[in-house]
Design goal:
Length: about 230
């Protein structure tokens, strides 16, 4: 059997836009400059929706922060949308300790927020300029380095110069379907319902595959019953 022996299918942003227009029966020769500009806007808005349907595994990376004695709060990159796991590394040889997240309310309930010690929990403040606050406040007993796996925002779609959209292979169809649905709202309202069905189905299929294939363990929390 003769096959391509290639795994390079990754259409440019412009090609994805043309395909989305095809799905609403607007052919490439019929597309005007204003329609193309509107399509770029709708493509980026579709990515905003993808960003909100987290986590997207292809946007997960590992970041680090050196902790300073007496400093509780640290700014982190603005494109960070979610923190999945965070741990502190210390000592020689290095040892990692996992930290638990707390909510704003739980942090506000801490009576003495300036207590120094080994950090054991953190609050991720999801502002336009996000930050992480640790408690207890890092002391000077050890040198601490924090590592955290974050979900970051998908890069902006800019079809100029043949740029690709930062979406993994398994989500290409979902993105085109989402864009076609959005364009149908504007240019082919009679097709909007059908394109929404396509978009929802494509997203459900892609999201089912965007998972880590590991066992799920559920343990009862019995610590409150111990004497």
């Amino acid at each position: 059997m003769q096959t391509s022996k290639a795994w390079d299918f990754n259409p440019s942003g412009g090609e994805l836009i043309l395909t989305a227009f095809d799905r609403i029966q607007v052919r490439p020769t019929e597309i005007t400059q204003p329609q193309l500009q509107r399509a770029i806007m709708e493509l980026n808005l579709a990515l905003v929706k993808f960003n909100n349907l987290q986590p997207n595994l292809w946007t997960v990376d590992l970041q680090s922060i050196p902790l300073l004695q007496g400093a509780a709060t640290y700014s982190i990159p603005a494109e960070t949308t979610m923190i999945l796991d965070l741990y502190v590394r210390y000592g020689v040889p290095p040892v990692d300790r996992y930290l638990q997240p707390v909510s704003r309310t739980e942090y506000a309930a801490i009576a003495s927020k300036t207590t120094p010690g080994f950090p054991s929990q953190y609050w991720f403040d999801r502002l336009i300029s996000p930050s992480i606050t640790f408690y207890p406040v890092p002391d000077g007993a050890l040198s601490y380095m924090v590592y955290y796996y974050r979900v970051r925002q998908v890069q902006d779609a800019n079809p100029a110069n043949g740029f690709n959209v930062e979406v993994t292979y398994r989500f290409l169809d979902a993105l085109v379907a989402a864009l076609a649905h959005r364009l149908a709202r504007i240019y082919q309202p009679q097709l909007e319902t059908a394109r929404k069905v396509d978009a929802d189905e494509a997203w459900a299929i892609a999201a089912t595959q965007d998972t880590e294939a590991v066992p799920l363990y559920i343990y009862p929390g019995l610590s409150g019953y111990w004497r």
